[in-house]
Amino acid sequence: MQIVSDKNFKDITIDKENIFDIEFLDCVFENCKFNECILVNCTFSECNFIDCSFVGLKTKNVSILFAEFIECTIVGLNWTNLDSGSISFPIRKLKNCYLKYNEFEKMNFKKFDFEKSSIVDSNFVRCNLGESNFNMCDLKNTHFAECDLRKADFREAKGYGINAFDNIIKGAKFSRAEVVSLLKYFDIIIEN
Prior knowledge:
0% helix, mainly beta, 43% strand, 22 strands, elongated, five-stranded parallel β-sheet, six-stranded parallel β-sheet
């Protein structure tokens, strides 16, 4: 396996390429684009991704350890396909990111900060999101199924789909304007 350490990658675009057997250690990726690439047997340890784009990325035997994603666009990623069915946490940061068509299953996001991110048309299934911060997130058409949301902060978040029967929501915080969305699963009629 090739090891790449302490390297900065800037303004690189990689389209429809296969990347195999590389371990990236303490690298910074800035304004890089990965379009429909395939990553196999790769590790990203303590790497920072700043203003990067990942579209249609496919992975096999990929580990992400202690990474930061800042102002990144991530479209169509099934995070549970990463090493061992989950990311080797912790990811340090996911800040001001745009995620669309992402799948998260059986992942531990306890006390994780998603603040100001857009996570749209995505799914969280059987995830631990206790005490996580979704404050000011756009969660349009994002659904939570069988998740632990105890003490999670959804104040000023919008667009989420949370079934109170299907998730643990004790102590979660919601804004008055959006909390009505929790009632849609009760099969009731709400009139103005």
